[in-house]
Write a structure and sequence with these properties.
453 residues, five-stranded antiparallel β-sheet
Length: 453
């Protein structure tokens, strides 16, 4: 499967096609506007020529057309000059042509509606071609019909003027060469400029890709450069993923080291009990229970997802209700009352397994020591989710010692020990804070604050 084109090539080709289309449309529009402009100028000159012919036209006593020998437009007196004129006297069937038509037969307009102007481009027919007006030659034509009255004589005259289209085509061709030359030069300059701008604009992407390759090869440990705002979030998230991966690897390593170290004591105790067969069964049962707690704790530490920006928001209340139902069944003989205060719409970005582990351990530890009641309150405070669990049991003998660094898990007694240490590790993986204290009215109190990620 072929790799898709790069972003650079997509942008370059897209910009090239847009620029090519724009220049083509702009060039065509400018060319049309210029052609219309010079065509109008030529028609205006032909109209002026007709006015000059009208100024010199006279009627004799019989109503015939009389034209002066010398015309106001010199080109009309020069054979094959490219400017030709004709006047038709429809009443007398009389036709006059300018001396410039000598040896030619241009396609004059022979009839026209009186009082209307007609401007058009016409072609000479093959039968009308000769040495000066070649077959298929094109002309710009202007015609005007008028009722001409002199004294008592009235005649219907049709004035027709033709101009060879060669001059018009030459002007248009010259303009087109200049126009397209400038447009091509401008397009090349814009493409070069655009390529440089694209290279400069995409440089941060290339730099980030280089840093990622450096991280893959181990040359650096994280994204270090500063990037534009569009890439800054991506860089931060990549660094967060890298930190999470390293933290997870560290947790796995630490958990395995602690597990191996913690299992030495139970194994040594079971080995020692081999010399006392009468106590072997009880010793094995006791040490297996301790090993089960140790393994559960270390697996909980290693499996913690930890803080992440990509976890979906979890609705806490349904999960909490499931845990409370389970606790009520486990401690049914104590007939405990679970008082829960959690808004039903409260959501938080936390892994469901981690939330289950935290809330489950908190309620389990509280239920073990409670006499009648366990209370749990969860609320949002600015950019953090807060939890408070209380019970009406004996409380902690030494709250600070429960989470002190260096306390070995195989020395923990059943009750608050292993469960709270698991919770503390999970809370720490979310950059949160756990506080242990005793209530003034008696019983234990545990508070957790999880900051927004």
């Amino acid at each position: 499967m072929n790799a898709p084109p790069s972003i650079r090539s997509r942008l370059a080709w897209g910009a090239f096609l847009v620029l090519l289309t724009f220049l083509a449309v702009a060039g065509w529009a400018v060319r049309q506007a210029y052609a219309d402009g010079i065509r109008s100028q030529h028609f205006a000159r032909l109209q002026t020529t007709i006015y000059l012919l009208m100024a010199g036209a006279e009627l004799d006593s019989a109503g015939g057309l009389v034209m002066p020998k010398s015309l106001a437009e010199p080109r009309l007196s020069l054979p094959a000059s490219g400017l030709y004129a004709s006047i038709n006297n429809l009443n007398k069937g009389q036709s006059w042509q300018s001396p410039s038509t000598l040896g030619t037969d241009p396609p004059f307009q022979r009839s026209q509606v009186t009082g209307q102007w007609q401007f058009d481009a016409v072609n000479a027919t093959p039968a009308q071609g000769d040495d000066h007006v070649a077959s298929g030659s094109a002309f710009l034509a202007a015609a005007y019909a008028v009722k001409w009255a002199v004294n008592d004589q009235v005649a219907s005259l049709v004035f027709s003027v033709l101009e060879d289209k060669v001059e018009f085509d030459r002007e248009l061709a010259t303009f087109e060469r200049t126009l397209w030359s400038w447009l091509v030069a401008t397009g090349l300059l814009m493409l070069i400029t655009q390529t440089l701008v694209l290279r400069w604009g995409l440089m941060p992407l290339g730099q980030m890709a280089l840093e990622i390759r450096q991280i893959e090869t181990g040359a650096q440990t994280r994204i270090e450069a500063s990037y534009p705002v569009e890439l800054a979030g991506l860089g931060d998230n990549l660094n967060l993923l890298i930190d999470q991966q390293r933290a997870r690897q560290t947790r796995y390593k630490d958990a395995l080291d602690d597990l191996a170290h913690s299992l030495k004591t139970p194994l040594a105790a079971m080995r020692a009990s081999l010399a006392q067969p009468d106590e072997l069964a009880a010793a094995v049962s006791q040490q297996v229970s301790r090993m089960d707690d140790i393994v559960r704790h270390q697996l909980g530490r290693a499996g913690a997802s930890g803080v992440t920006r990509f976890a979906p928001h979890l609705t806490v209340a349904p999960l909490l209700n499931r845990i409370c139902d389970t606790m009520a069944k486990v401690y049914v003989d104590k007939e405990l009352s679970f008082v829960i205060d959690c808004p039903p719409e409260l959501t938080w970005r936390v892994d469901e397994g981690d939330a289950f582990e935290i809330l489950g351990n908190l309620l389990d530890n509280a239920a073990k020591w409670a006499v009648h009641e366990v209370c749990l309150r969860i609320w949002l405070d600015e950019d953090a989710m807060c939890m408070r669990v209380t019970d009406d049991g004996p409380g902690f003998a030494d709250p600070q010692a429960r989470l002190a660094r260096g306390v070995r898990m195989d020395e923990s007694v059943p009750g608050h020990g292993i469960g709270l240490t698991v919770v503390n590790d999970l809370v720490a993986s979310y950059l949160g804070e756990l506080k242990i204290s005793n209530r003034l009215t008696g019983g234990a109190q545990i508070e957790i604050v999880l900051p927004k990620t």
